[in-house]
Amino acid sequence: MTEPRKIKPWLKATLELGPLVLFFVVFMRMREQTVTIAGTEYSGFIFATLVFIPVLVASTLALWRLTGKLAPMQIATLVLVVVFGGLSVWLNDPKFFKMKPTIIYLIFAGLLGASLALRRNWLGLVMAEALPMSDAGWRILTGRMALLFLGLAVANEFVWRNMSETAWVNFKTFGLPLLMVGFFILNAKLFERHALPKDGE
């Protein structure tokens, strides 16, 4: 199997986070305005979505070209952004794009739950290179991540259905990534307790 090629961390971060940051900036500048394209008026949210889709496609393709590999979550995110973002633009209805995080989190929660039920270590296959752990550690982490994704799906549904578009964009841009980071920080003891010994230990 071909090893993924290494790229500079700042370039990787730019390609992964740049499209989301651009979406946030465009939305914040255009949220009180409408844009007319081919005789149809679009809200600032829809216009930001229209900008976000091709930029995400380009950055994901660039990441694949530079590294030779994409994570399953990156592929799933790209597909769902194109489908649901495209529906939001086509139908001029923002709810489809807002539902995208819910759907992707439910998909991953379902996959992780299935891996536990089938006694398969699918999460370890994806993350073992970066986070070598024992099988017991992976089982615990898989269960916790399945619950995390379920919680994030519920949280996304609550925010977009009950709060303003600005609140949802802030939640999507900053809240969801911070919750993910917080999850891994809270599980630091798990990683330490179930880490595989390094060579020579």
From TrEMBL:
Record bears the keyword Cell membrane: yes
Transmembrane residue ranges: 12-30, 42-64, 71-90, 102-118, 138-155, 167-188
Pfam families: IspA (PF04279)
GO cellular component terms attached to this protein's record: plasma membrane
Record membrane topology: Multi-pass membrane protein
Keyword line: Cell inner membrane, Cell membrane, Membrane, Transmembrane, Transmembrane helix
Keyword Oxidoreductase attached: no
Record InterPro entries: YciB
Subcellular location: Cell inner membrane
Family: Belongs to the YciB family.
Summary of the function given for this chain in its UniProt record: Plays a role in cell envelope biogenesis, maintenance of cell envelope integrity and membrane homeostasis.
HAMAP family: YciB
Protein known as: Inner membrane-spanning protein YciB
